[in-house]
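=== RUN LOG ===
request id: a7f3
mode: sequence -> structure
chains: 1
length: 144
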Amino acid sequence: MQVKIINRSSHPLPKYETTGSAGMDLRANTDNPITLGPLERTLIPTGLFIELPAGYEAQIRPRSGLSIKKGLSLVNAPGTIDSDYRGEIGVIMVNLSNDPQTIAAGERIAQMVIAKYEQIDWQQVEVLSETNRGAGGFGSTGKG
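=== RESULT ===
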């Protein structure tokens, strides 16, 4: 699938790092490093603008390496970039560690996965079909 992209960053386009990769890394497009204190969050620009076809979204997800090594994650994970959005992709990062963490200019901060979705029409009813599970949730199907 071809996707139109504008790259106003000083970094190369996102790419799949391996043949089995589902996501492409996004980089911080900043002039200077950004330091986040414990529990602090900020919006980090990427310099990227995309035009997805209708029926697709870009999911912005945390990078596991940043999460385990620095305690950095995303506030709204996964974030969604809708097909009709034309603004810059921004990543809302949060520092979940007890120490200040610095994000370098050009550092890989998140990954982007392109996913197909369906839009629905609601069918309002009074009763739903029965299942073995029923209304059980929040750990009701097992013991740990």
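=== NOTES ===
The first strand starts at residue 4 and ends at 7.
Residues 4-116 form a domain with the Deoxyuridine 5'-Triphosphate Nucleotidohydrolase; Chain A fold (CATH 2.70.40.10).
=== END ===
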